[in-house]
Amino acid sequence: MSHCIHHPFIDMRERPSRESKVVSQAIFGEEIQVAGSQDGWFSIITSDGYSGWVPDKSFLTLAKPYFTHLEITRLKAHIYGEMDTEFGPLLSLPYGTKLHLINGLDSRWAKVLLVDGREAFIQKGDVEREPFELVSFSKKFIGLPYTWGGRSSFGYDCSGFVQMLYSRLGFQLPRDARQQMADPRAKSIAIEQMAASDLIFWGKSAGDIRHVGMFLGGDEFIHTSSRENKPYLRMSKLTDAEWGGEAGAFYPFRAARRFL
After folding, report:
1. By C-alpha distance, which of 196, 211, 172, 174 is closest to 258?
2. Does 147 lie in the same domain as 211?
3. Model confidence over 157-172: pLDDT tens digits?
C-alpha cells in the first residue's frame, strides 16, 4: 500500500533496530511502499527503489492525489499555521519540497495543503522560481553538513547529493555511488576527457566504489564528504592528495562517467 511521508525526513536503517546503521532517508512528500513489519518496525521502499527499516508509522499518511504547484527554492523554509512568523513554524522543510497551493493570498503569503491534510502557510519568498544552470546551482549547497544516508538539504551524503542534482534535470540516478557508476546509461570516459556535470567515482577498487562527486571544470569538483576533517559539502581539486587516485590515497581508484 502506498503512503506519503509527512515529516521533513525519516532515517531508514539496515535492520529493525536503532543500533543498526542508517542506509538512506525518506523525505517529505515522497510516496513510499510499506513492504513488511517486525517488532514495531516497518520495512519501506522509497521512490528510488531503496529499502530500509523505520521505527513506526506515525510519519506516514495514506497516499492520495497531491497536486503540487509550488516548490521550495531556499535551502530550508518554515511552514506556518498562521500568516504571522511570531507564532513560530509548524515545521521546517528542505529544498525542493513540493507543495499543493490552495490560494495565493497576498504578495507575501500563500496558503498550502500539506500531505497529511493540514492547511498551512508559506512565505512566497521561499518558493520564488530561480534561473537554473547546473554548475552554479550545485554551489548553492556549499557548507551543508555531510550526513550519512542524507537525501535532503538538511544534509546530503555523496550519492544523495549528485542524485538530487541530476533530478533537477529530470534524470533519475540510482541511490548509491556504486550503482550510479554501474548504471548502463553511463558512458565511461577518461579523466582527461571530462566536462562540467560529468561524475567522478572513487573507491578501493573498480568493484568497491565508495564516493562520487560532480566535475565542475578546470581542476575542480563538488562533493560532500567527511574526509580531510571537512565534514561538509565543498569544492575540491583533482590534484589534492586525497582525490588524485594515487596508490597512497584513501580511495586509490578513480574513474569518470558521463550521463548527460
Report:
1. 196
2. yes
3. 999 999 999 999 999 9
162 and 247, same domain (yes or no): yes
End-to-end CA distance of the chain: 34
The three three-digit cell numbers of residue 207, written as one number: 568493484
pLDDT, residue 65, reads: 66
Residues 237-248 have a mean pLDDT of: 93
**CA pair distance 241, 249, nearest whole angstrom:** 7
Cβ atoms of 187 and 199 closer than 8 Å: no
DSSP string, the chain: -EEEE-SSEEEEESSSSTTSPEEEEEETT-EEEEEEEETTEEEEE-TTS-EEEES-STTEEE-------EE--SSEEEEESSS-GGG-EEEEEETT-EEEEEE--SSSEEEEE-TTS-EEEEEGGGS------HHHHHGGGTTPBB-TT-EETTEE-HHHHHHHHHHTTT----SSHHHHHH-TTPEEE-GGG--TT-EEEEEEETTEEEEEEEEEETTEEEEEESGGG--EEEEEETTSTTTS--TTSSS-EEEEEE--
What is residue 21's DSSP assignment?
A: P
| Residues 33 and 142 reside in one and the same domain | no
Residues 146 and 232 in one domain: yes
Cell of 88: 513560530
**Cβ-Cβ contacts under 8 Å for 96 (sequence gap 6 or more):** 71, 72, 152, 153, 164
**Which residues are marked as active site?**
158, 211, 223
Read off the pLDDT of each residue in 194-215 and give the average, rounded to a whole number.
97
